[in-house]
Amino acid sequence: MVLPRSSPVKDAMLAPSDLFSVRGRTALVTGGATGLGRVCAEALLAAGARVLIASRKAEACEAAAAELSAIGPCEGFGSTVANEAGVAALAAETQKRAHALHILVNNAGMNWGEPFETFPWKAWERVMSVNVAGLFSLTRDLAPMLAASATADRPSTVVNIGSVMGSVTQSEHAYSYAASKAAVHHLTRILAAEFAGRQVTINAIAPGPFPTNMTRFAIGDEAGAARGAKAVPMGRLGRREDIAGALLFLTGRGGAYTTGAIVPVDGGVAAAAPAPMFADE
């Protein structure tokens, strides 16, 4: 294949600060008051975006937004993606607060761990409602805003927060959570294909073990953190900058030609080779 000759001025390489900048963009981060959602909100704010954060605990979300406003323009409000009415209200509130939406981070999620023998029906209903139906429905309702804000030069962006648990065949008794994250990954690819022509990129980040409220039960103390790190090929837990870097790539100019990707941010967990079958290590 012969590549067209480029103009050295027109096609000059952007500076790294421009490749990862989201200056002038408006973003919505669900579940943005705590955990990885707050990390995403902080990263977008630091890179120049105006950020709306929403979570089911309104007061906590408003307090978090007040703190994050020291970095950049941030607003917080109560919402839920656990049911149809909650998604509709969240979409309406977003449209009320912003005339344009360039970035949607579908981070809100829930987990449920219980042994196989007693794993209940409601664990499937609740987890799949939030992690899959809520994510899909909010994306559907905000798709017109995202498409209207997009251009061929600068697409709008949806980033879904998946999980390494959606890729590996190890449930850790979180059956519905693992299945829901596999669904998130597959939905990401499906929607990426549907929205590419509308200049909206749709990707997912699949984190490995990170110290958050959701993982506190397992890696919240020193012994648990050491045990969790030992299970990661790179030998450590995830850090804030690991998520921030992946997010800013996908939402900045550097990721404008990337869609349908499931980006593993897991220290090699999903890529780890199985134990050798025919020889000693």
A few lines on this structure:
By secondary structure, the protein is α/β, with parallel strands linked by helices. 41% of the residues lie in helices and 14% in strands.
CATH architecture: 3-Layer(aba) Sandwich
Return Rg in Å. Answer: 19 Å
Please write the CATH class name: Alpha Beta
How much of the sequence is in beta strands?
5-15%
SS content category: alpha/beta
Strand order of the largest sheet: 3-2-1-4-5-6-7
Uncertain segments of ≥5 residues (pLDDT<50)?
none
Average pLDDT, all residues: 93
Helix/strand order, N-terminal first: HEHEHEHEHEHEHHHE
Shape: globular
Number of domains: 1
Kindly, what is the distance between the CA atoms of the first and last residues, rounded to a whole number of angstroms?
43 Å
Largest sheet: number of strands, sense, barrel closure: 7 strands, parallel
Helix content: 40-55%
Number of DSSP-assigned strands: 7
Number of alpha- plus pi-helical segments: 9
CATH H level, superfamily name: NAD(P)-binding Rossmann-like Domain
CATH topology: Rossmann fold
Describe the fold and architecture.
The protein is α/β, with parallel strands linked by helices. It has one domain (16-265): Rossmann fold (3-Layer(aba) Sandwich). The protein has helices at 16-19, 35-46, 58-68, 84-97, 121-148, 175-195, 216-219, 222-230, 240-251, and strands spanning 26-30, 50-55, 74-78, 103-106, 156-161, 200-207, 262-265. Strands 3-2-1-4-5-6-7 form a 7-stranded parallel sheet, with helices on both faces. The longest helix has 28 residues, at 121-148.
